[in-house]
Amino acid sequence: MRIVLLGAPGSGKGTQAKLLVDKYKIPQISTGDLLRAAVAARTELGKKAKAVMEAGQLVSDDIVLGIIQERLAKPDSKGGFILDGFPRNIPQAQALDAMLARLGQPLQLALLVDVDDAVLMKRLTGRRNCGSCGAIYNIYFSPPRTPGKCDHCGGILQHRSDDNEETVRNRLKVYHEQTSPLVSYYKAQGKLRTVRGVGGIGDIFRNICTVIESQIRPLAAVMGQIGASLAAKSKAAKAKKAAAKPVSVVKTKPKKAAKKKAKKKAVKKKAVKKVARKTKARKPVKKTKTKKGKKAKKTK
Fold first, then answer.
1. What averages of pLDDT result for each successive group of 10 residues across the chain (300 residues)?
2. N or C terminus: which one in the chain shows less Cβ crowding within 10 Å?
3. What residue ranges define each of the domains in the chain, with the CATH number in brackets?
4. Is 127 a catalytic residue?
5. Minimal CA–CA distance to 191: which of 96, 72, 79, 53?
């Protein structure tokens, strides 16, 4: 199964992607993780990406697509993949479709985890992380028993600087301007399905699995039937063509046998010529009678 996950920051699509990886045993392809891995591995594309990032610029779509293509070449991607974080706009989606078409791995499903902006604001601005053990809380939805302290280790809870209201509003604005149009793009292709991202993580995941089971598996079965039908038709056409074509049998002798026969024939021909020459040499010469050679008749 080949899926692209869509959703605003804070929609929980990253969490759902990890659950899908565990269930369906296919890799989650996050462009951010891929870029960091390529830079660390010092691959050719990683070196290019590093130079661009160090210059304070955005990594080009060509580099990102190249890194995704390298990742899809690995064996664990043969059964499918989950794209997370790419594409972010229509041109990227078009370039991705073109690349996947060349690889024979087109997307089967665009899954939107839909959450209202008001809920997203509370999710992002209310996040708190424990500085000691890394536990995550939300002061609106899953607050700690003691405000500001971790329930597990008693560590101090921290608030990320980019989780302030102004930054979150800007992130959501960028999402609606650039990424939201992808909803219409994939809807036009008949690949878009939407799941509400509100409620328990387990409930959301079950709804996502229901969508996948109802959409991708029947599609895969239909595609398999179509492929089998086309293969059967092709085989029947070849058999019909072969039956209609007259079969001409050309008898050929092995090359070695032909050479041997030619050599034997040449030897025989040579022997015949030799015998002919000897016969000609032994043939007696016929004498002709002349008048001078005649004896005179005796007279009485």
1. 93 93 93 85 87 79 90 91 92 95 94 96 94 93 94 94 90 91 95 94 95 74 51 73 63 60 74 66 53 46
2. C
3. 2-27+74-116+179-227 (3.40.50.300)
4. yes
5. 96
